[in-house]
Structure formats: structure tokens, C-alpha cells
Amino acid sequence: MLRRKARRAPEEEDPLDAAQERRVRAVLALGGVPQADLPDGVQQVRLRLLERAAKGYEAPRDVSAWAAVVASNLAMDWHRAKRRQDRIGERLASLRQLEHPSGEDTSVLSLAVAQGLDELPDSQRQVLVLRFYADLPVRSIAQELGVPEGTVKSRLHTAVRALRARLHEDEVV
User: Fold this and answer.
1) pLDDT tens digits, 59-108
2) Which of 12, 27, 32, 51 has its CA 20 to 30 A from that of 130?
3) How far apart are CA 20 and CA 65, in angstroms?
């Protein structure tokens, strides 16, 4: 069965033309954003342009230049987030080396905790590890992750509760 292509209303037109999209992709790529993340970056630029219009702001005088600046900012944000994740990964790796310097056998409890951590969402696992393995205070975690302290506390509470439930379910504790 053939489907008809839906026509867009004039107000639903793509805010970026093909040339502007190519320019945004080029800026993102030159900014070091991986090829796989380029479509998301282009969508972010579109979204910001649409949000700008939805708020009643005038369209930028030069949409192409505006989009390039936004793409450049997105590339910098991508690098900051990657650097933050890399630092956290390095901390975790150093903690694991300290915990198992001689390759000794892992206890049942350690194995159950590790499996429970693997099942937690990334955001919850991250704060749990930073708080209890890296022994960072809530304030430092919030600053490092760029989130409010209340968010860190909420994620910690939820993660501890889920991990405790998992350990009881497996009859480890």
C-alpha cells in the first residue's frame, strides 16, 4: 500500500534549509562531535530555533551564522560532558585498583552489589559510586555533575532503596 507524503503547513516548515544543515553538521564535526551524534546535534539546533520562535522572538538576521554559533556551543558542551564522564571513569578505575590490588576472590556480597549496581540507571549508579566508593560529599557530587544537591540526594535515596531491595531479593543480606 502506498502512502501519501504528508504536506507540512507553512508554519511547520523546517527552520534549517539544506545548506544550513550541512553547515551545522560541518561545525559539529570540526568541533569533534562523533559522526553518530551529528543528527542529534542538528536536531538540537532546529529545536533551539523553534523554541526561539515559540517564545515570540524574531528570527535571527542570519540564520546560518546563528545556527553555526549554536552548533559550536553544542560541540563544546559535548566535550565538557565527555570530559566529566572520563574523569568519573578514571576515579572508578582507581578505586577498583585499590579495592582488589592482588586479584583476590570477590565475596558473594561484593558480587551481588556489583550486579545490583549494573542494574541501576546510569544517573543513580553514578551518584551512588561517587558518594559511597569515592567518599565524596553531596555538595561536591552536585558541583561535579552540575545538578542541584536535592537531585543528588533524591538519586541516592532511590538508588540505595533499589540496591537494598535487590540484595534482599537475592537473599544476600
Assistant:
1) 888 888 888 888 888 888 887 887 777 777 777 676 666 555 444 445 67
2) 32
3) 9
Q: Which triple of cell numbers denotes residue 20?
A: 544550513
Tell me which residue has cell 553538521. 25
**111's grid cell:** 558480587
* pTM assigned to the model: 0.47
Residue 147, C-alpha cell as written in the block: 545538578
